[in-house]
Amino acid sequence: MLLGDGQAQIVSHTERSWASITFAGTRHRVVLAFEGADAVEAGECFIAFLPDHEFAIRGQLVADAAVTRVDHAAAPPRLVITCELLLLEEA
User: Fold this and answer.
1) What is the pTM of this model?
2) Strand pairing of 78-89 and 60-73?
3) Cα–Cα dist 23/13, whole Å
4) pLDDT tens figures, 23-57
5) Sign of the C-alpha dihedral, residues 63, 27, 78, 73?
6) Model pLDDT, residue 36
7) Which domains occur in the chain, in start order?
8) Which of 11, 30, 31, 75 has the fewest CB atoms found within 10 Å of its own CB?
């Protein structure tokens, strides 16, 4: 499944190192914009499916993926989603 149906535009992306006693990885904040009625519908699906999505990132395990902010606009239809992901390095 293609999360977001290829309708998202990346507005911004930040990354910072993260570590605990047993794991190391990176925390990512991504802001995505979905513009137009079809794209907004795809964005709503993105929100619904992100927490349970099976990511395939070589050498990485997505330990957490959450939507932290959602902004809607009606005219023109626009949806902006901020999400945070915690990626851990696979051993």
Assistant:
1) 0.89
2) antiparallel
3) 22
4) 899 999 999 999 999 999 999 999 999 988 989 88
5) positive
6) 95
7) 9-89 (3.30.2000.30)
8) 75
